[in-house]
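Sequence in, structure out. Go.
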Amino acid sequence: MTSRPPHEPDGLMLFDGVCNLCHGAVQAVLAIDREGAIRFTPLQSPYGQALAARHGLNPESPDSFVFLDQGRALIKTAAVAAILRRSSQPWRWLAILDRLPRGLTDQIYDAIARNRYRLFGRREHCMVPTEDQRARFITEAP
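Output:
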């Protein structure tokens, strides 16, 4: 088992807070992660900006979200599959996505990511979590 660097969070989804598709993805993860194992950080937050820089993601024009999983910064299909593996049943079985050809699944991911604002729209401001969700959102470095 890989040990996580002490400065690296585990189970943290770094997402574009003004993207409607990303907002929908966060809402979906909140719904399927019944144990609350996954936390969230918008790219537009101070902590999100620092993590993006550390992991080579341009916060002004992100081409993926990042999922920090046991010391690894995962993107695209690998990130989606890692989140699904941490989700409750019956959603966990969808992590089989990781068994599909990575080149193909990442190409599909890239096509959607490139067109996400045009297809799904964009928000003026980052999403504001509800009172119940607030504990799962991190905007400042711990």
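Check: The mean pLDDT is 88. The radius of gyration is 14 Å.
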